[in-house]
Write a structure and sequence with these properties.
This protein is α+β, with helices and mostly antiparallel strands and about 220 residues long. The protein has seven helices and eight strands; from the N terminus they run H-H-H-H-H-E-E-E-E-H-H-E-E-E-E. It has a two-stranded antiparallel sheet with strand order 1-4. Helix 1 packs across helix 3, helix 3 packs parallel to helix 7 and helix 4 packs across helix 7.
């Protein structure tokens, strides 16, 4: 599937160039930069695959985690159905709760100290988002979903800088809209069996989630 996606990106790039298409995200990506350089074909194909994959599993696993939370915290559906201000914070809280990317590895660019631990320039550092998003010193009652949690300094998208998640605004939008529409259509959601997690040490996601939904 990965090879097919890689080939599809090549075909898409050629089609856009032939048609002279000047609309959409792909056109923006293929534009020359400030130095007049255009993204090479291989780089575009890799970038395309990254965007498609990164914007797929992380969002759907966040949605699954949100539905799991609704099944175990019935009050969440009522809050969603009431709407209003809750939608300004709900998506971020669901994404915090899900933490679909469990960790990243970074290389320290300078010496620094954090919480009594010294890190040297060049050290390889693992940043455990899954731990940070459950930090009791940062989040009140971190093992419960609170849709009105604010502020919510979760680290699921990174914390700014060159490594911040490119798709964070789209992810928030997708999660918010899905739960807004779901809340209009159901009156209850209940667990219907044990859930099963994806077998991965990098992506945290629910692979199987039996639930029963009662139509509104």
């Amino acid at each position: 599937a990965g090879a097919e996606l890689f080939d599809y990106a090549k075909e898409l790039m050629a089609e856009k160039n032939r048609a002279g298409d000047t609309e959409g995200v792909l056109h923006m990506i293929l534009q020359p930069d400030k130095d007049g350089e255009v993204m090479p074909e291989v780089e575009f194909r890799n970038f395309f695959c990254l965007l498609v994959a990164a914007g797929n599993d992380t969002t759907r696993y966040s949605i699954a985690a949100g539905i799991q939370a609704m099944a175990h915290q019935p009050e969440l559906l009522g809050q969603m159905r009431a709407g209003g201000e809750i939608w300004k914070t709900a998506a971020d809280e669901i994404i915090r709760w899900a933490t679909p990317a469990l960790y990243f590895r970074r290389t320290a660019t300078r010496d620094f100290e954090m919480h009594g631990q010294t890190v040297r320039e060049g050290d390889k550092v693992l940043l455990w988002w899954a731990s940070g998003n459950r930090d009791e010193t940062v989040f009140d009652d971190p093992f419960r979903v609170k849709l009105d949690r604010a502020p919510n300094p979760h680290v699921s998208f990174g914390q700014g800088g060159p490594h911040v998640c490119l798709g964070m605004h789209l992810a928030r939008l997708e999660v918010r809209i899905l739960f807004q529409e779901l809340a209009k259509r159901i009156a209850a959601v209940e667990p219907a069996g044990p859930h099963r997690f994806l077998r991965s040490n990098f992506v945290g996601g629910i692979k199987e989630l039996p639930v029963t939904m009662t139509p509104a």
